[in-house]
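#help-structures

NK: newbie question. if I give both the sequence and a SMILES, will the prediction place the ligand too? trying with zinc ion
OV: yes, paste both and it writes out the complex. here, I ran yours:
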Amino acid sequence: MVATVGLAAASEPAAPAQDILLFRNATLFDGTGRSPTYNMDVIVEGERIKQVVPDANLDPGLLQKAKIVDVRGRFLMPGMIDAHVHLATPPNRRQAEAVLRRDIFGGVTAVRDMADDLRAVGDLSRASLVGEIAAPDIYYAALMAGPAFFTDKRTAQTSVGGVPGYVPWMQAVTEGTDLPLAVAQARGTFATGIKLYADLSPNMAGRITAEAHRQHMKVWAHATLYPAKPSDVVAAGVDAISHACLLIREPMARVPGWTEPRPTATLAEFRDGKNAALARLFAEMVRRGTILDATIWAYSADTAGSTTLPPLSPGSCDDAIGGAITGQAYRAGVAIDAGTDNVADWTDPWPDLFHELSALSDKAGMSNGAILQSATLIGARASGQERDMGSIEPGKLANMVVLAHDPLTDLNNLKSVVITIKRGRLFERTAFVPLKEGDITDR
Ligand SMILES: [Zn+2]
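OV: that's the protein plus ligand as structure tokens.
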């Protein structure tokens, strides 16, 4: 009478799930902020969660109709979201597919791509959505910056065949730009948000943000836009600001423009997590609901395990300072997502996201419960997907992770993934094909 879902269902991308799935007797961390509840059943129909109910109240008729996945004694939580990835700078399909495969089989069901060659990212997003590749869902940003940014060689790598600054996914904007048209072109790439990168004044940040919101796009900004400083960027009304280490500019009376020399900041004033200028900034972020996309791991002085970032120069902001800044934001009540902006090398069998979650614990002092919320509901908000993702509730997408052990007692238990479920499709950990040395080739 009891049908179990076998390995075959998980290993190959398949047609969209139509069946009724019953995850039975879970220890449920639903991601809403509630404490875990026990002996809970989650009923999935097609790609969405239909019902969440104590097993004692289960409609017995479902035992006949549903495929049953017995998760007794196991921990069920929402699928995780990496809120800062770069899948195509430069486009590298083999690497992107390998990283995405490592993500989905490790419990990551969505990623937010923070500006790349969107021709490549758009195709990856489509392939993931229709089940051609084993991957999280991909939401992404179209970039805008002042013209001075477009000498950066990465803008050429991501605009091949076009002129950097004059392609819809990476636009140079000035006071004279027709912003309704520029935002409409960005929307035409299927991007969810605009990323504000650099060489933007407070006034321009505000104007772009207002127009993007008018056209129902999110705005995700670097925390300092040279010359706009963090408080200017927050006042512009953006939805999220990236990179804890860019917050070191907040106490400065004047932040230089993108092409001007940058004065060295006194990093010691951030180390105790009690900076007065940041306290004012964080109070305003709490009032507005602005999310901090901290990316602490990307500032790790030990780059041995990662491949994309150059070594930090001596005296620059590192993960200790970035962590102290993020810890201050956390204690002030700022919503913090979990994003990586970095790629671990091929020998690592787990999602890059796990490195950031460790940093949120070790460097920022966040609780495990808060970290799981960062990786789920706050990541969903950051990606503009909170109506569909981030918690286990009826009506939301069936994006979930089954773990053998409880990550609230030890974050390392995230490595006890048994099954990832995305849009009702199962990816069993035993079907994970590890990465090979040649899969990660960006250096
Ligand atoms: Zn980035």
